[in-house]
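Hi everyone, sorry if this is the wrong subforum. Our group has a chain we'd like a structural model of before ordering constructs, and none of us has done structure prediction before. Sequence below.
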Amino acid sequence: MDGIERISGKKPIFSAIDLREKKAVQEFFKTYDDISGLIHFAASKAVGESVKNPLLYYENNIGALVYILQELQKKQKANFIFSSSCTVYGQAEMMPIAETTPIQPALSPYGNTKQIGEEIIADVVKVSDINAILLRYFNPIGAHPSAEIGELPIGVPQNLVPFITQAAAGIRSELSVYGNDYPTPAGTCIRDYIHVVDLAKAHVIALQRLLNKKNVEPLEIFNLGTGTGSSVLEVITSFEKVSGKKVSL
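Answer:
Right subforum, don't worry. Here is the predicted structure as tokens:
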């Protein structure tokens, strides 16, 4: 919160509630009954953790979404931005992936919660005054240039960049790179990484699109990526070049 204030010059109003508690969600919407737009980020997001504890992910990612939509549905007009994921495409049969790419079975409980979440939103939009945009992220990385806001996960990082930074800082003894025989120039997996600041700007644009009634359909879907892939080793090499820090592999 302090980092947000130092960056923006504005202190956000913050309410600490558990979205899995229906009454808490209802009270929140009673307190802030003039909400015109809502961006839903509050979901668990680690693929590996979802495999180990699927019920946690279904409870948190699906239950909370339902409670939020129940309150939004009561409004005459509501604008909703959903934090989705490229995992909804499953194992896509063709590359590159476009918004029209057929949805395949999810490869994890996390990915399944995003598929189910999108289906729930689509059904609700049909019978309510909610306008929604689904933003399917590819691989968000990085931090705000000021370093006031960044990714500092609890426990062992599940994503590449925080593991790189912690390995470089000596918090982790080494970074394990899995796979060296991919059909890529560096031999490692290629992914489409998008910077978190660009991701944040996309959410602002999406919400403005709904508030200004520029949306073509009540429900719209957009992929969020750069369209350019980078391998794991390319990301590590780039970090080392820019920071001057060596990452132990």
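For your construct planning: The CA atoms of residues 140 and 196 lie 6 Å apart. The helical segments are 2-8, 22-31, 47-52, 54-72, 109-126, 160-169, 196-211, 232-243.
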